[in-house]
Target: Response regulator transcription factor
Amino acid sequence: MDDITNSSRRLNESLHLPVLVIIEPLLLPRSCILNVLRRELAEFEILDMATVQSLDSTSALDVRVVALSIADKPIGDPSVENDLAFVAECCPNAAVAILSNHDDESTAQAAMQRGVRGFLPTSLPIEVVVAGLRLVLVGGVYRPLPVTGMNRMPGFEPPDARGLASAYLTNEGARAAFDRSVTDLTPREQHVLAELELGLPNKLIAAKLNLSQSTVKMHIQHIMRKCAAHNRTEAVLRWRGRLPPQSRDHDPGATAVTET
Model:
């Protein structure tokens, strides 16, 4: 009851903002996730709920993503299947992201086969989870696991190619390189890099993150240096794990930050 009351209390504040809903039965992890996402995704209203039944209170809202925590349950568990069906009924226009304690390929594939657009193992760093949710929020698909055979899945329809590639890491070495590069970046640099991955020009990145264009250029220069990249495209490719990591002693020099 408190969960429904708290959600309803924020209704008026949320009417004009796109909404991301976090569904997590346990209060402590739910509160921690909520605090992080409200800080990192300020352009969205973040609502937290203990159960999917509370989604009934969101009918007047523009719900873009529902992030459903399933803990240790397999995707095929009847309770998970029922929750996914309820989400689809209450929020037919929302994408679904799954928070799972499992990070194996079979669980990821089972999620994608059911139309889930974000697979977020709880073993991921919070910065990566935020970047994954950003990708889902703009229409992409996020899953930090190999995609061998993905295009052969029955009923699977590839999403917008702008956001797809960054989520798919082809091997453990690339994945480790990705995790190291993200760890080395500051939170603001991670935000800028996530927007670069979407192909946004500096002007739009500045407007979206409420920064000046000169500040955006400075962050991009730092990102390029830390990724040992000569340009913004190469930095994104290294972030994706598509290019082999180079020594941090390599200095691309004072490469111009090209506006795209």
